[in-house]
Design a protein that fits this description.
Largest sheet: 7 strands, antiparallel
Oligomer: single chain
Strand order of the largest sheet: 15-14-1-5-3-18-19
CATH architecture of the largest domain: Alpha-Beta Barrel
Mean pLDDT: 96
Number of domains: 2
CATH class of the largest domain: Alpha Beta
CATH superfamily of the largest domain: Aldolase class I
Number of helices: 16
CATH topology of the largest domain: TIM Barrel
Length: 473
């Protein structure tokens, strides 16, 4: 099969729709939104430019792709169902360029839920069936948008807890680290999710994500960074009886900078006591490493157990060993360049509970950083932000007809008509296309051409405007 055959990048049933629409249908207008009931009250839109550049831009329809699609659909659904004539019309008469117009909110923009994020309409009357044919592909922006939203909301939460515990913000950029590659559904999904995370943070172990800003968003700099770190294959290399010998070996060979050490290979409490108590040899090597360079730091990573109690346990042991000082409003901070990393089983609520537990026990939020893997890459789904793509207007014989759905589940009621997205008093509102006011939706694609080629830096700045305030919103 031809890779990325646009004729086949859809749901099977959509192949049959061209002969179901009413006669004289000329245009179909559709939109995407995050519906009422979303987990977060705003969605940060992201990922459309990637999809356009990878799948839609330029001459994407050829006769070879059309005939391959016909052959497959003839077997997959039935003969004479595939829309051969119209696809050949696009391939030949339209030079393989898709006759659609896509308008969208600038990527990185946080938009209040129940508002239009993107609209799609055909520009050639013969191809009225095309906008919703492309729904499955275009709607996949839900994934990077949801991950971008999740990371932004976590950063807002960090801002809040750093503020209330009078903590330093020196580590904020790296307080949530992306460990999601191994748990991702695919390398492509890890790239998208990982790049979405980089809109809010700079810490990542998902190296494939680093290619998205450069290849699809005109970046000329690196946006993600990591540190030297161990895993259990390293820490258990000399067995249980020589765990401390191996820990010393790691520290001796570590380069200057940050060193993250996983500590629960056997007994995290025993490891921390050895690392933090001056009676033990491991502690002297930890201190030697910390003293070797002003910027050296060791981060201890318990990787199992009940999150809140284990975190408090570790904080107390480290604090007893290295000492603490207090922030301006009395929260404890380690008196050495050491820290704690929690990266097991995290999602938004678990992070919130850990930070709340730390505050309740008198610990400043700056003592900890978090690593999220599956919680970032695979725990979200299309219903997290309730993303939907629906047709809201159709033109027949030159007349526009508003359409909508209104099921018994009122949360799934769709919008009707054609829209603008306006901003009033820092709040977005979807209005009729005839409404006065500047439209925040920009035409980003028309007839095979990408019209706005945005930069990752611009997109990141838009997202950062939303998360820069230290109060939860």
């Amino acid at each position: 099969m031809i890779e990325n055959n646009i004729c086949l990048l859809t749901d099977s049933y959509k192949v049959t729709h061209h002969y179901f629409y009413p006669e004289n249908t000329e245009k179909i207008y559709s939109y995407m939104e995050s519906r009422t009931g979303s987990e977060f009250n705003k969605t940060i839109f992201y990922g459309l430019q990637y999809i356009i550049k990878k799948y839609l831009e330029g001459q994407v329809v050829t006769e070879d792709k059309v005939y391959e699609a016909k052959k497959i659909i003839d077997q997959h659904i039935g003969k004479d169902i595939f829309n051969l004539d119209d696809w050949l019309y696009i391939a030949d008469d339209l030079e393989g360029k898709l006759p659609i117009e896509i308008k969208a909110v600038p990527e990185g923009t946080p938009v209040d839920i129940s508002n239009v994020l993107m609209t799609v309409v055909n520009t050639d009357k013969r191809c009225y069936w095309l906008p919703n044919y492309l729904e499955p592909l275009l709607l996949q922006t839900w994934y990077p948008s949801t991950v971008a939203t999740l990371s932004a909301e976590v950063r807002k939460m960090f801002d809040f807890y750093l503020d209330v515990t009078s903590s330093s913000r020196d580590n904020l950029e790296f307080m949530l680290h992306d460990f999601g590659y191994r748990g991702a559904n695919s390398t492509e999904s890890s790239r998208l999710a990982g790049s979405a995370h980089l809109l809010s943070f700079s810490g990542t172990d998902t190296i494939p994500a680093l290619s998205i800003p450069e290849n699809y968003y005109n970046a000329n700099e690196l946006y993600g960074y990591s540190v030297q770190a161990t895993e259990h294959s390293v820490m258990t290399a000399q067995g249980m009886e020589h765990e401390m010998d191996q820990a010393i070996n790691v520290i001796k060979h570590a380069h200057d900078g940050i060193l993250s050490m996983v500590i629960d290979s056997y007994n995290y409490k025993n490891f921390l006591v050895n690392a933090c108590n001056s009676e033990y040899e491991l502690n002297s090597h930890v201190k030697t490493f910390l003293d070797r360079c002003d910027t050296n730091k060791i981060v201890f990573r318990p990787d199992s157990g009940e999150p809140i109690s284990t975190t408090i346990d570790c904080l107390e042991i480290i604090g007893e060993g290295f000492g603490t000082k207090e922030t301006s409003n009395g929260y404890k901070v380690f008196d050495a360049n050491v820290g704690l990393l929690w990266s097991d089983g995290l999602d938004y609520k678990v992070i919130r509970d850990i930070l709340f537990g730390m505050k309740a026990h008198g610990w400043a939020a700056e003592n900890i950083i978090f690593g999220m893997g599956g919680g970032l890459h695979t725990s979200v789904n299309r219903d997290t932000q309730r993303n939907a793509f629906k047709s809201s207007a159709q033109q027949r014989s030159g007349v526009w007809y508003d359409i909508f759905k209104k099921p018994l589940d009122s949360s799934k009621k769709s919008k009707s008509g054609r829209f603008k997205l306006i901003k009033e008093n820092d709040t977005y509102r979807t209005v009729s296309i005839d409404y006065d006011g500047d439209d925040c939706l920009q035409t980003v694609f028309r007839n095979g051409e990408l019209l706005i080629d945005d930069t990752f830096d611009n997109i990141r700045c838009r997202a950062r405007e939303y998360i820069s305030h230290p109060k939860l919103g």
